[in-house]
Design a protein that fits this description.
This protein is an alpha/beta fold and 266 residues long. The protein has one domain: Ribonuclease Z/Hydroxyacylglutathione hydrolase-like (Metallo-beta-lactamase, Chain A, 4-Layer Sandwich). It is 29% helix and 24% strand. The protein is built from nine helices and 14 strands. It has helices spanning 34-43, 61-64, 67-74, 82-91, 151-157, 171-175, 181-188, 196-206, 226-240, and strands spanning 4-9, 16-20, 25-28, 53-55, 78-80, 100-102, 108-111, 114-120, 129-135, 138-143, 162-166, 213-217, 248-251, 261-262. A hairpin with a 4-residue loop joins strand 2 (16-20) and strand 3. It starts with a strand and ends with a strand. The mean pLDDT is 96. GO terms for molecular function: hydrolase activity. It catalyses: 3',5'-cyclic CMP + H2O = CMP + H(+); 3',5'-cyclic UMP + H2O = UMP + H(+). Counteracts the endogenous Pycsar antiviral defense system. Phosphodiesterase that enables metal-dependent hydrolysis of host cyclic nucleotide Pycsar defense signals such as cCMP and cUMP. Keywords: Hydrolase.
Amino acid sequence: MGIRFTVLSSGSTGNATVIDNGEVKLLVDVGFSAKKMELLMKERELAASSIDGILVTHEHSDHIKGLGAFARKYDVPIYANEKTWVELDRQIGVIAEGNKRVMDTGGVEEFGTLKVESFGISHDAAEPVGYVFYEGDQKLSVVTDLGYMSEKVKEKIADSDALVLETNHDVDMLRVGHYPWSIKRRILGDKGHLSNEAAGEALCDVMTNKTKSVYMAHLSRDHNLMDLARLTVNNIVEERAPEAKQLRLMDTYFDRSTKWDVLDSE
């Protein structure tokens, strides 16, 4: 079947994505209660009990809110690097030792024919990561919660068939918003979140003719609008890469899942 995926939900209040290759089903983050996760998965006719593993990007609550409860209920192994595990142990309750799997940053895990590689990103967490998924010649990258797109990150996610990419905020909306300046400074900093403009610029550096879809993820409900994110990214791509006629900019939602996206095989 190859890779298919759905962003179950994404935003400041919670994040979770499912990747399925027909043999294994993996979750990236569990940012909602176990009950909410079950409802979101049901929208895509997916049983929570079918999940084979959970990959954790970092320990912030909008990515691990239901992690412990979900893993215990369905006896699912959790993959995270050692520094993240230190934080998880403080937050998610007791996890069966056999389900505590250490995946070093930059490491590769194989789940049948599905290969997963992690890579370090810049965010104010213990050791945050993004993930790249490979199935044959197919490549899916999931990268959110990063203050800036380093050249190393660009190298990892370049030439993806599809990306789940952070478009967190519009800089002008954030600057005039109601947040205290200390929080604004954090979001705008190198360990904060990626703006619409920064996402668009980075996308132009990593996409190729192979890249068909980009899911704009982790939008701020206070300092962004989906239409604005799409317009900003689209304008940058049209200016810098007008030949990219194949690219689809896709919405994600804070309260519902995206339709399954099935990657093409060459």
